[in-house]
Specification:
about 230 residues, alpha+beta, 3 domains, four-stranded antiparallel β-sheet, 4 helices, 4 strands
Amino acid sequence: MPLNRVILRALLAALCGMPLLASAQPASAGIFTCVDAKGRRLTADRPIIECLDREQKELNPSGSMRRAVGPSLTAKEQAIEDDKARRLAQEQQRAEEEKRRDRALLMRYANREVHDRERALALQRVEDVIVAVGRRSVDLRTQRAELAAEAEAFAKDPARQPARLTQLIQDNEQLQAGQKRFIDDQLLEKSRLGTRFDDELARLQRLWALREAPATAAQVVTPAVLGTAPRATR
């Protein structure tokens, strides 16, 4: 730009009371300020390199604080902060899951009677299966005794025992072993159900108490609110 134009522009700016370089920055540009490690207060129109290890303040053109900019972190420090944020998010997620679980429990079990009834039904279903399998086990033991009696005729010469009889004995023994494993699994399921309902009941008792607490508090406050509280005697 020719020199005379620069001088003319400067004179016009001065006459109008405007900064010469007002158009060089947007009106909303912030100002960064901080105190460095040597105690010096520094100011710049962008984040200050000397203060990357400490907090900087970004100010509005009016001088009011727009925001605080935290110190830059090393890779190790950033990893620690990321781990903290991840744990916090996990804790918040667990808390939300607990709340959803509590709401679902209260919707499913309105009171102790409903919970006790469902517990009894669940345990009875498992017990019915155990009884049915037990009857089948008795039949298998009876069948095994009959097969043993039939095999007794070949005790002195097992090689003469028919293959059919040998197979029936093996099948019977496998079925009895399977029945025993199944009954053991059902007994474990019965124990698991009992533990589950015990844990649910303990949780529900706290939830029911919390649900009833506002009503109890309201009953205590109502007389005073209605002006029926006892008056002090003179």
